[in-house]
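In response to reviewer comment 3 from the previous cycle, which asked for concrete evidence that the modeling workflow produces usable outputs, we include below a single protein chain processed end to end. The sequence was submitted unchanged, and the resulting C-alpha cells are shown without manual editing.
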Amino acid sequence: MTGSRPRKRSLTLRGHQTSVSLEDAFWIAFRDIAAAQDKAVNALAAEIDAKRGLDCGLASAIRVFVLNHFRQAAERGPEP
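The workflow returned the following C-alpha cells.
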C-alpha cells in the first residue's frame, strides 16, 4: 500500500458523476471514516465538496479531511 499511485475512483455528488484520483491508503481510510460515521462515501464526499474552496481540488480536500480526522483522533488519545 505504501507508495501506491493514485487511482481514479467514481463518486456521485448531488446527482452528478465525478471522479477523484486517490492513493489506496487515502481511499481505504476515507471509506473507513464514512462507515464509522454511518454515512455513504458519496454523502461524505458531498459534504467535503461543499466546504472546500474553489482553489482546492476534491481529491486534495479528501486527503486533508482524512489527515485532519486522524490528527484529531491522535490529540484525543485512546478511547477508554
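The helical segments are 24-36, 41-51, 58-76. We consider this sufficient to address the reviewer's concern, and the full set will be provided in the supplementary archive.
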